[in-house]
Amino acid sequence: MCLPCSGVMYHDSAPNQDSKKRSTKERAIMPTPSTRSVQNAVSGGNPFATPDMSMRDEWSMNWEHEEDERDRDDIQVEQGVSGGQSSGRISTLPGTRRNTGALLATQGYVVGIEISGSGARQAVALADLNGNILYRARRPLDYVPDTEAVLELVDEMLAEATSAERLSHGRVLRVGVAVGGLVDATQGIVRTLHHAHGWDNFPLQDYFAERLNVPCIIDNNANAAALAEVKHGVGQGERIALYVGLGRGIGGGLVANERIYHGTTCTAGEIGHMLVKEDGPKCSCGGFGHLEAIVSAQAIVRRMIGLSVEYPETEAAIRRVTGARAERITAEQVFRLAVDGDAIARHIVEEVHTYLGIALANIVQLINPGMIILGGAVAQAGDVLVEPLQKRVRQLCLPAASQSLRIVKGHLGTEANIVGAVTLALQDM
Predict the structure, then answer these.
(1) What is the pLDDT of residues 338-363, one digit of tens each?
(2) Nearest to 3 by CA among 77, 115, 103
(3) Of 228, 247, 345, 417, which one has the greatest count of Cβ atoms within 10 A?
(4) What spatial distance separates the first Cα and last Cα of the chain, rounded to whole Å?
(5) If DSSP codes are grouped into helix, strand and coil, which group holds residue 197?
(6) How far apart are CA 318 and CA 298, in angstroms?
(7) At the topology level of CATH, where does 240-410 sit?
(8) Could you tell me where in the chain the CATH 3.30.420.40 domains are found?
C-alpha cells in the first residue's frame, strides 16, 4: 500500500505576514473550504479515512499482520457486499514489497482523479471495490489553468463525488490519480505537467494523502489507461500489451503480466519523443522530428489548417465539416476527409501511418508485445487508422515479431484515463 508520507504538511492557522512568501506548492497544500468539507472530521462523517481498529465493524475491515514469507508480494482482497463474497489475488505495484500482511475489505469505495495540463481533462470518479464507477464529475476548462486552479477544481469535484448520500456502504479507502505529464510513481511526484506551468516536482501524492487522510497512488495517464485497458478493456488476457495515447500529445504505457513497467526513472513509455524524422518539425519539448510533432492530434490539425490556405478545395471542405469554423476541426475529421478523397487530408493521414508505423515497428522489435492498443482523439478514426497501420508495422518488422501482433482501438475510449485512475487505486488492495 502506498502510505501517506510525512514530508509535506499543511497548516490550518490564520495567515500571517509571511503568507505572501509561500510558494505555489505551499499555498496549494493549505486546506480550502471545499477540502474541509471532504475532510470534515468525525463529527460530520469524514468520507475519507484510514483504517481505525475501533471502527472495524462499521467499515467491515480486517487487518491481518502475518507475513507470508513464501508470497510476500501478494495480498488478499475479498470483494462483495453482504454475502456472496468472492476472493482474488492482486499483485502489488512494481518495486514494492509487502511486509504487513493483507487488507481484507468488503465495504467501501475508491476515488479516481484525472488531471491534465490542457485544462480539458479534469475529472473525479467514485467507484466500488469491484471497479464499477458509481458517480463521475467532470469539469473541462477552455483555458490552461495554473496549479492552484486545477487543485481547487479537483477539491470541488471531490466534494461532489463523495457527498454523504453517495457513501451508503462505507468510506473512501484509497485514491488513484492519472496525471498527464512526467510522473515519478515511486516518489509520488509530478516532474512536469504537459502543456502547463507550475508543476515541476510537485509532491502530488503527499498533497492528496495529507488533505484526504487516505493512501494515494499517482501515475502517468498513459500508464493508467494501459492498465485499465488490460484489466477492463480490449487487452484482457494479454501478457504484454502496449497502450499508445494519441491525443494532444502522445504517450505510451507498457503493461507486462498486469504490471506497469516504469523504467529506471519512471519515463518508460514516453514514445511521443522518439525521433522518427531527422529534419522534422519542432516538438513541444524543443526537439525536432519527434513522433508527437507529426502524428499528435494537435500536429494533424495544425498541418491541415496550414496547408489548406494554399488549396481552396481543402479549405472549403474544412469549412463544410466544421460549420465554417475551421479552427474547430478535429483529427478524426481530417481522417474522414481523407476517406472522402481530399488530397491534403490523404497526404497528412499517410504521414501518420508512415511515422507512427516506424515508431511502433521499433518498439515491436524491442519488446515483442502481443497487442498494441490505440487510444485518444486520433484513435477515434478507427479502421481508417488501424488497418493501414497494421500493414505498415508488419512490413517493417521481422515476421516472427509481428505475425501474431494485433493493433486495435481501445474499448474504453475517452474514459480510459479516469478508469485507469480507479484501477490504480484498486491495484494494491
Answers:
(1) 999 999 999 999 999 999 999 999 99
(2) 103
(3) 228
(4) 7
(5) coil
(6) 16
(7) Nucleotidyltransferase; domain 5 (3.30.420)
(8) 28-228+417-427, 240-410
